[in-house]
Write a structure and sequence with these properties.
Helix content of chain B: 40-55%
Distance between the termini of chain B: 7 Å
Strand order of the largest sheet of chain B: 3-2-4-1-5-6-7-8
Helix content of chain A: 40-55%
Oligomer: heterodimer
Structural class of chain A: alpha/beta
Shape of chain B: elongated
Largest sheet of chain A: 8 strands, mixed
Strand content of chain A: 5-15%
Radius of gyration of chain A: 21 Å
Bound molecules: guanosine-5'-triphosphate, magnesium ion
Chain lengths: ~280, ~290
C-alpha cells in the first residue's frame, strides 16, 4: 500500500501522512517519526520493511497493557455504567453487550438511565425486547439517580448477574451534566458492592483530536475502567486512540462494527493495527 | 495558544520591516500544527499553508500590527474566505412546498436538527413546516421525531409500518400540498458512505422527493475521515449545504474547513445544543477563530 521501496524522506513522509490521516494526531505522530528517524540513523537501517515493523511495535506498545477482559463479579451483581458524549453509540453498545453476555449464559438487566432525550427509553426498551432481557425504566424527565437506585434494587431482587446502565449523552465541558453523572456513580457505588465494576467510556471512531479531551474530562469526573470504540465498520481508523491511551491508560474492552446486536467484538490490537496500515 | 507560539517564532525577527520567507516558514509550521490539531484534513492543511505563504511572503509589516498579529490576520482572513464569506440561507422554492432532505453518518444529529430546522423555518422564516420520519430502521427513530414534534406543536408525518422511505417522502409531500404545509423536512436514517445499499436507498429517496435542499449533517468532532464521507455523500446526492452540530462542545471543528474545501458546499447552520432552539446561522469569521484556536 505504501509506495516507497527504500528508506528516504519520501518513506517517512508517507508514514507521516498515513498517521495524520488515521487521526493519530500531531504530538503522537511527531514522537513516532522522531523515534524512527533516530533508529534509522543509529542502526543505519536500509530495509523499509524494518521501519514498518518498528512503527508497528511502537504503536502496539502504546495500547493499554492491562487485560481487556470485562471486570465481572463472581457470585455477586456486576454493575456497568456506560457513558460518553452525544450520539457515539452508547445505547446500541448496551444492546450489544447485553446480547454478548446473555449468549455467554449470564442473566442481564438493563437500566434506561437516559431520562432526558426524546424516545431514549423507547429505544432501549425495544433493544431489551430484541435481546430478551428486561429493562428497568422510569418516566421521561425523571431523575437518573433515582432510576439507578431502583435498577440496582431490582437487579438484586431478580438475582441478575449483570446490570448495564445507560446514561444520556453529554458534553464533557458541561459541569452540571458531569456533576449529574458523578451523582449517578455515587448512588451505584453506595447501593452495589464496590460498583460500578465497569465504567465504560464510548468513543466514536470518526472522532478526531477531541476524543483526547473527552477521555481526559470524563476520567477526571469518574474513574474510567475501559473504552468501547464504535463505528469501526466505517472508514475512520480511530487513530486518536493512541493519544487517548496516553491520557487515561484505560483498556479498550470492545469495538462496535455495525448497528446490529451481534456487531460487537472484543478489542484485538493486531487487527486494529492491521486496519490502520491498510 | 497559536499567538504565543507565533510570538516565540517572531521574537527572533530582524528589524527589516518585511516578513522574510524563513520567518514565514517557521510561522507557518506553527499554523500547520494548529490546523492539524483542529482536525483539518492533512491535504487541505498542506494546500492552505501553501496559499497563505504566497500571501505572507513579502508582506509589509503593517505599523499597527506585530508580525504575529500580521500572520494571524492573513491566516484568519484566508480561513474566513474559504469557509464562505457570505451567509448562505435555505433556498425557498417558488412552488410550494420547499423540500429539505437531511443526510449523514450515524449519530451526527440529523433527527434533532430536523426538529430544530422546523422551528427555525416557522419562527424566523414564518413558514408552516411538516417533519417527515423517513428513518424506518433505528429503534424508536420515528417516535423520537414524533416526541420532538409534539414538544414544538409541529406536525410529523410517519408512514404505515413497512412503507419504504421514498414512498413515505412521496406521501408526505402530497400531504403537504393538500394541507398547505410550505416546508417539508425529511429526516433520514444514519448510514455509512461505504454502504452501497443504503447510499442507493437515499439516492432513490432524493429522486422521488426532488428536494430543493440536501443538507449533510456533520458532527463538529469529526476527524480526518470527514473528507472521505463528505465526498461520497456529495457525489451520490449533490449536497446544497451542511449543518455542523455539537458546537457547544469544545471540538475545534476543522472538519468544516475540510468539507467545504472538498465539496465547495456552504455550512448553512450550526447546532449548539440539544434543545430545538439551539440552531444558529453559520458565521465564517467565528468558525475561523475557533478552528485556529
Ligand atoms: N455503523 C455503526 N453504527 C453504529 C455503531 N454503534 C452505534 N451505531 C449507530 O449510531 C447511532 C447512534 O447510536 P446510539 O446508540 O443511539 O448512540 P448514543 O450514544 O446512545 O446516543 P445518545 O443517547 O443520543 O447520546 C445509531 O444510528 C446506531 O445504530 C457501530 O458500531 N457502527
Ligand atoms: N450537545 C449537542 N447535542 C446534540 C446536538 N445535535 C444533536 N445532539 C445530540 O446528539 C445525539 C444524536 O442526535 P440524533 O438527532 O439522534 O442523531 P441522528 O443523526 O439522527 O442519529 P441516527 O439517526 O442514529 O443516525 C442526541 O443525543 C442529540 O440530542 C448539538 O448541537 N449539541
Ligand atoms: Mg443513547
Ligand atoms: Mg436520527
Amino acid at each position: 500500500v505504501l509506495g516507497s521501496t527504500k528508506i528516504d524522506d519520501n518513506l517517512l513522509d508517507e508514514l507521516e501522512e498515513m498517521l495524520f490521516e488515521a487521526d493519530v494526531g500531531v504530538k503522537t505522530t511527531q514522537e513516532l517519526l522522531d523515534f524512527l528517524h533516530k533508529k534509522v540513523d543509529e542502526e543505519e537501517i536500509t530495509d523499509p520493511q524494518k521501519i514498518y515493523e518498528l512503527l508497528r511495535d511502537q504503536l502496539k506498545a502504546r495500547l493499554a497493557k492491562f487485560s481487556s477482559e470485562p471486570n465481572l463479579q463472581k457470585d455477586a451483581l456486576t454493575v456497568m455504567l456506560i457513558i460518553g458524549v452525544n450520539g457515539v453509540g452508547k445505547t446500541t453498545t448496551i444492546a450489544k453487550l447485553a446480547r454478548h453476555f446473555t449468549k455467554a449464559g449470564q442473566k442481564v438487566l438493563l437500566a434506561a438511565g437516559d431520562t432526558f432525550r426524546a424516545a431514549a427509553i423507547d429505544q432501549i426498551s425495544i433493544w431489551g425486547d430484541r435481546v430478551g432481557c428486561e429493562v428497568i425504566h422510569g418516566n421521561e424527565g425523571g431523575d437518573p439517580g433515582a432510576l439507578v437506585f431502583d435498577a440496582i434494587h431490582a437487579a438484586k431482587k431478580r438475582e441478575v448477574d449483570i446490570l448495564i446502565v445507560d446514561t444520556a449523552g453529554r458534553m464533557h465541558v458541561k459541569a452540571n451534566l458531569m456533576a449529574e453523572l458523578k451523582k449517578v456513580q455515587k448512588i451505584a457505588e453506595k447501593e452495589s458492592n464496590g460498583g460500578p465494576h465497569e465504567i465504560l467510556l464510548v468513543l466514536d471512531a470518526t472522532t478526531g483530536q477531541n476524543a483526547v479531551q473527552q477521555a481526559r474530562l470524563f476520567n477526571e469526573a469518574l474513574p474510567i475502567s475501559g473504552l468501547v470504540v464504535t463505528k469501526l465498520d466505517g472508514t475512520a481508523k480511530g487513530g486518536v486512540l493512541f493519544a487517548v491511551e496516553e491520557q487515561i491508560n484505560a483498556p479498550v474492552k470492545f469495538i462496535g462494527v455495525g448497528e446490529k446486536m451481534d456487531d460487537l467484538m472484543p478489542f484485538n490490537p493486531e487487527q486494529f493495527l492491521e486496519a490502520l496500515f491498510s | 495558544s497559536l499567538s504565543a507560539k507565533l510570538s516565540a517564532v517572531f521574537d527572533k525577527l530582524r528589524k527589516s520591516g518585511k516578513l522574510t520567507e524563513k520567518d514565514i516558514d517557521a510561522a507557518l509550521n506553527e499554523v500547520k500544527m494548529a490546523l492539524l490539531e483542529a482536525d483539518v484534513n492533512f491535504k487541505v492543511v498542506k494546500n492552505f499553508v501553501k496559499n497563505v505563504k504566497e500571501k505572507a511572503v513579502g508582506a509589509e509589516i503593517l505599523s499597527s500590527l506585530t508580525p504575529t498579529q500580521q500572520v494571524i490576520k492573513i491566516v484568519l482572513d484566508e480561513l474566513t474566505s474559504l469557509l464562505g464569506k457570505e451567509r448562505s440561507k435555505i433556498q425557498i422554492s417558488p412552488k410550494k412546498p420547499t423540500v429539505i432532505m437531511m443526510a449523514g453518518l450515524q449519530g451526527s444529529g440529523k433527527t434533532t436538527t430536523t426538529a430544530k430546522l422546523g422551528l427555525y423555518m416557522r419562527k424566523e422564516e414564518k413558514k408552516n413546516p411538516i417533519l417527515v420520519a423517513c428513518d424506518i430502521y433505528r429503534p424508536a427513530a420515528i417516535k423520537q421525531l414524533q416526541v420532538l414534534g409534539d414538544q414544538l406543536s409541529m406536525k410529523v408525518y410517519a408512514g404505515e409500518a413497512g412503507t419504504r422511505p421514498a414512498e413515505i417522502a412521496r406521501q408526505a409531500i402530497e400531504h403537504a400540498r393538500e394541507h398547505d404545509f410550505d416546508v417539508v423536512i425529511l429526516d433520514t436514517a444514519g448510514r455509512l458512505h461505504i454502504d452501497e445499499q443504503m447510499m442507493g436507498e437515499i439516492k432513490e429517496l432524493k429522486e422521488v422527493a426532488q428536494p430543493h435542499e440536501v443538507l449533510l449533517v456533520v458532527d463538529a468532532m469529526t476527524g480526518q475521515d470527514a473528507v472521505n464521507m463528505a465526498k461520497s455523500f456529495n457525489e451520490m446526492l449533490e449536497l446544497t449545504g451542511l449543518v455542523l452540530t455539537k458546537l457547544d462542545g469544545d471540538a475545534r471543528g476543522g472538519a468544516a474547513l475540510s468539507i467545504r474545501e472538498v465539496t465547495g458546499k456552504p455550512v448553512k447552520f450550526v447546532g449548539i445544543g440539544e434543545k430545538a432552539s439551539a440552531l444558529e446561522p453559520f458565521y465564517p469569521e467565528r468558525m475561523a477563530q475557533r478552528i485556529l484556536g
